[in-house]
C-alpha cells in the first residue's frame, strides 16, 4: 500500500467522512502537505493567521488557551480528526496547538478548502456536524466550569477523558494522556492543591489509580454515580 493509499484510508475513518466521494479525498491529497512534528513542537500559536486546517493522522495534539500569565488545556485530540474547524471563518486561531508526541498531519490550505466547499455545497454537512459536536462540547465545558463545584468539575473531566482516551487495562481504563495534577488543574480551572486533594478522595473511594502521571479509572460506572451523587447534593442545597 502506498503512502497516499494509507492516508486516503485514514481520511475515510474521520467521523462523517466515510460517505464522501473519492473526488474529495483526491482534493485533500493534492492540496495538502504532509508534515511531521516532534513532541513538544507547536503547529501554530493563538493569534496566528489561519492559513491551514490540519488532519491528524497519528500522534496526539493538545489545544491550549493562552493568557498573559497562564494557559489552559482546552482539549486533547487523537486521530483521525480535522482541526480547527473554527478557522474556516478566516479569523486568527483562537488557541495554540502542541504535539504531545511524534505526530503526523496533513496541512490543508484553508482558502483552497473554502473554495472547494463553495463549489460543492452538498459536502458541507460533515463539517457542520463537526462544528455542532465542538459546540456541544464547549457548552458542556461551560456548564461544568460555571455550575459545578470542584469535585464535579474534576470528576466530569476524568469521566470524559476515560471515554475519549481510555485504554482497556487490567484494572480499568487507563487514560491515554499522561496528566499531572497541575495539568488537570489547568483543564478544570482549579487550584492544583484542590485537584490533588480530590484525586486522593477518588483513590480512597477505589475509583481511580494513579502512578506518576498515569491515571486509571477503575470503575467508570462508579465514577458516573459519584458525579451524579454530588450533583444531587448540590441541587438540594
Describe the structure.
27% of the residues are buried. The chain folds into 2 domains: 3-137, Jelly Rolls, CATH 2.60.120.10; 148-236, Arc Repressor Mutant, subunit A. The protein contains 8 helices and 12 strands. It has 237 residues and is α+β, with helices and mostly antiparallel strands. A 4-stranded antiparallel beta sheet has the order 1-8-3-6. The chain has a 4-stranded antiparallel beta sheet with strand order 2-7-4-5. A 4-stranded antiparallel beta sheet has the order 9-10-12-11.
Secondary-structure element series: HHEEEEEEEEHHHEEHHEEH
* Largest sheet: spatial strand order: 1-8-3-6
What ranges have pLDDT less than 50 throughout 5 or more consecutive residues? none
Shape descriptor: elongated
Cα separation of the termini: 61 Å
The main sheet comes to: 4 strands, antiparallel
Helix percentage range: 40-55%
Report the sheet-strand fraction.
Answer: 15-25%
Count of separate structural domains: 2
Amino acid at each position: 500500500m502506498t503512502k497516499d493509499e494509507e492516508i486516503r484510508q485514514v481520511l475515510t475513518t474521520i467521523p462523517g467522512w466515510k460517505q464522501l466521494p473519492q473526488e474529495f479525498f483526491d482534493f485533500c491529497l493534492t492540496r495538502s502537505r504532509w508534515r511531521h512534528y516532534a513532541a513538544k513542537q507547536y503547529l501554530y500559536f493563538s493569534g496566528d493567521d489561519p492559513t491551514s486546517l490540519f488532519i491528524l493522522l497519528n500522534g496526539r495534539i493538545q489545544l491550549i488557551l493562552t493568557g498573559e500569565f497562564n494557559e489552559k488545556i482546552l482539549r486533547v485530540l487523537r486521530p483521525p480528526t480535522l482541526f480547527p474547524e473554527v478557522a474556516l471563518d478566516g479569523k486568527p486561531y483562537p488557541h495554540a496547538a502542541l504535539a504531545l508526541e511524534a505526530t503526523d498531519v496533513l496541512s490543508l490550505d484553508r482558502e483552497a478548502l473554502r473554495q472547494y466547499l463553495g463549489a460543492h455545497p452538498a459536502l458541507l454537512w460533515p463539517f457542520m456536524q463537526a462544528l455542532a459536536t465542538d459546540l456541544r462540547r464547549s457548552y458542556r465545558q461551560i456548564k461544568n466550569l460555571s455550575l459545578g463545584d470542584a469535585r464535579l468539575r474534576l470528576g466530569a473531566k476524568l469521566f470524559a477523558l476515560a471515554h475519549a482516551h481510555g485504554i482497556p487495562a487490567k484494572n480499568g481504563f487507563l487514560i491515554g494522556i499522561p496528566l499531572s495534577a497541575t495539568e488537570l488543574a489547568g483543564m478544570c480551572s482549579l487550584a492544583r492543591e484542590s485537584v490533588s486533594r480530590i484525586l486522593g478522595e477518588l483513590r480512597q473511594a477505589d475509583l481511580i489509580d494513579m502512578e506518576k502521571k498515569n491515571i486509571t479509572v477503575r470503575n467508570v460506572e462508579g465514577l458516573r454515580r459519584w458525579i451524579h451523587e454530588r450533583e444531587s447534593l448540590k441541587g438540594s442545597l
